[in-house]
Each structure stands twice: as C-alpha cells, then as structure tokens.
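Appendix B: a complete holo record

For completeness, this appendix reproduces one full record from the ligand-bound portion of the collection. The bound molecule is zinc ion. The inputs are the chain sequence and the ligand SMILES; the output is the full three-dimensional arrangement of the complex, encoded as structure tokens. No fields have been trimmed.
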Amino acid sequence: MEIVFLGSGGGRMVLATQARSTGGILIKTDNHQIHIDPGPGALLKMKMLRQDPRRTNVVLLSHYHTDHSGDMEGISEAVNEAVLISIKECLIGDNKVINEFYKKFYNEIIEIIPKKEIELSDLKITGTKTIHGDKSIGFIIETEGKKIGYMGDTGYFKTLSKQFEGVDLLIINVLRPNNAYWKNHLTTNEVIKILDEIKEKPKSVIITHFGLKMLRVGPLNQARRISLETKVPCRSAEDGMKILLEDVLEQTSLFGRKFKT
Ligand SMILES: [Zn+2]
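The structure of the chain with zinc ion bound, as generated:
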C-alpha cells in the first residue's frame, strides 16, 4: 500500500501563500485509490507527481474548509466508478462544496457520521469524532489487513485518543508547534498527550497540515520531539512524499535511537 502526500500545508496563511501545498493525501491499494481532502493544488500536484486522478475511486472529504476541499469539483470530474464519503454539511445546504452537476460523476455518495462504518468491497471506512468549530469528521481506513487513522482537523478533547486505539498508522493534522495553542486545532504538545493516552499505540505516526508558525519552527524538529517523548516513530510529511506503508511500519528506530516496541 502506498501513501502519497499531495500536500502538507493547512490553515489560512499557508493556503493563501501555498508555502506548502494543500492537495490532500492519496492512499493507493490493490483495488482502490483513495483521495482524502482534495484541497487547492490537488490536481496540479497529481500531475507533477505522475498520479492519475482518473484512478481515484474513493474520495473522503472531512469538512468544507477550503484547504481541504478547494479542488473537490475538479477531482470529481476526473474520478471513475467512484464513491464519495463525507458529512451531510459538505453535500447539501449553504456550505456544500459540490454542486448537483458534479455529484453525478459519482456512482454513490454516502453520508458519514462518527462511529458509522461503511464497507466497500475490501475497504472499511469508519467516521471519528472531531471538534473543529464547524462540522467535520475524521476517518479510520481499514484494508489489506491494516488500519490507518486520519484524525482530520480537530482540537483536543478527552475521548479523541480512544478512537484510534490499535491503528497501524496515525496521520495527525498538527497546525502549530510546541504549546502554541490555537482553538479547534492541535499542537505538538497535544499530540504528545494524545499518544500518551493511547494504550495500544500506533506503530507509526505522520504529522501534516502545517501552519506558518509550524513551518517557522520546523516540522522535522517537532516530529523528532514526538518520537523521543512518546517512543512512537513519528515523521513529518513533505509535499510529494511517497511512502510504502509496509516500510513505515517496519521502522522501529528514528534518528539513530532504537525504540523498544
Ligand atoms: Zn478546517
């Protein structure tokens, strides 16, 4: 299974400057190409990274903020035999990000809410709760015997961590470094707290969705801090980063230090 980061930026200033791209994440399995949160730049990044949007057959949309949804309609025009999974607020009403014309490009559109499980052949998608000010959701993606958690945009809350017990890989949107708190988003300190709370820890963590403050401090430093303080191998996403899940899960050491697993 391959994971491609079409972007690693987030928040208003990084969206506006494209200091990091905001194209979302591709998960490529034998039977599926899953596009999570196709923000602005998704189509362009796919071209640059030689990824084919016509192979996308599942789109997961966590919420309607533009850094997650800006290229939705362009991507919709490209997809084939595809299923769109999102919350109701992205699909109908004042804040919908896909109009009726582009909905017709999908075989099926499925509304998701926290804890709801959706099965599509060898793929299971479960919604996870977020607190993000506006309506939003996270996802657990299970396929090929592996579990990937995507926390979506959320602030810290008491039961956030519990939802991701036992995932293999956890992808966390971390807008800000260290203790630079910002409502409805996560900081590095909060990620460390979340990982400490999880009993059955992820085998690996990838942080992404960086705001300007995070980029100034350096996501690599923050990933290193998370690794050292939680003993969970953590890396920071780069625009265009491609990883094989199997390789990432085998990795038990980072920065020359052995971790006990
Ligand atoms: Zn958001």
